[in-house]
Amino acid sequence: MRRARVAFSGVLAALLLGGCMIGPDYVRPQVDVPAAYKEGTPSAPLAAAATSGAAASSTWTRATPADAAARGPWWTRFGDAQLCALESRVDVSNQTVQKAAAQWREARAMVASAHADWFPTIGASTAASNLHDSANVIGHQQTAGKTFQDYSVVADATWEPDLWGRVAHENDAARANEQASAADLQSVRLAMQSELAVDYFNLRTLDATQRLLDQTLSDYRQALDLTTSRYRIGISSQADVEQARTQLQATEAQDLDLGVARAQYEHAIATLIGQPASTFTLPPAAADFTPPAIPPGVPSQLLERRPDIAAAERRVAAANDQIGIAESAFFPNLVLSAAGGLESSALSNWLMAPSRVWSLGPALAGTLFDGGRRRAETDRAKAQYDASVADYRQTVLAAFQQVEDNLAALRILQQETTQQDAAVQSAEKTLQLELEQYRIGTVNYLDVVTAQNTALTNERLAVDLRRREMDASVDLVKALGGIW
Questions:
Q1: What is the extent of the structural domain holding 463?
Q2: What are the alphabetically sorted keywords of the record (predicted)?
């Protein structure tokens, strides 16, 4: 009983000391957040939200990937049924998303594994053996040269109280890494969804360019027929006919060349939705190239909306806990152990009370000298923390840059599209005038060819500008975190 009281006193002392937490408290790193986007001019309703958001930025809470804000389906804002059907398959069949989901489940299992360290480890064993003792060992007179049996069944338990907070830090770090992994999953999902949207609009741009070239080829065939007719009646030269034929053949080559890029985009879309490229076909179709209105919100909201920012911040928290784990190694560990069971040399009395065996007692162990290893590990943990802080701040800076880049791109591309549409109209008017003058013989066919090239170039530029607008819209959605 006295020994039991001593052991109980040790357990009580350990529990009382268990509240001592070694290591720095976590404080979210500070970042510079502008009051508004330089390239964004919010509307009246959004301006009110910006005012309230700026006022709340000083009390901003930690961004976590488990927030209630939905991250989709943002692609419905583009109003394309085919795109919506394809996007719905990304989350289910895309293998990059599936890999990220598996990594998140792995991180979640690590949380459960770290949580198990709060509890004692209990084991049991049973054994039956024949033993033969040496006859030439001094002190074994009773068993010397004899063979006897030994039967035992033992249960044991060990528990290490968290005196210095090591287990608490390990649990906090595991939870932070799990949250970071969940945010990584959101980032991968958003990246695959936006990549699919960009590939889809690029493919539809090629379809639009194909229709443009098909119409142009029809016009060029009419021009070739015109020059041929004029040549036959002697009012045009054979050179005019050959120029018209060259123009037609060169445009036919451009039309065919579009098939290479279109096939590659089609194959890329198949891979993104988890389908073999050989079994996937996306027929040509028209698409609406009018970018939707995308409210950017205020910069302080970006810290909560971007999953990669949340992941970087959670990794800072995990690195902070690693410092506490490293510092706890400077203090001794207390292990409480207990064992009990039955042991006998005969089965007949194995389960009787005199066969019982037990042990109970604490063990305190610590490192007195390790050549500076623990200090080095602590310095390494602090350096990793500083690196994670730099990663977090760089992620925030990159996020603001991406939003500003795409806001600027949309603003400038909108102006450029307006100017290019005017250029297309002027080029078409010039071409019609040159054709009329060619019919009456006031200009040669080289002027018509030049006008045709100018018109086609401007029309293709107009189509490509609309593609760039759609790409910038998708990239802006991605830069904002995919949330409205």
A1: 21-122+163-332+373-479
A2: Lipoprotein, Membrane, Palmitate, Transmembrane, Transmembrane beta strand
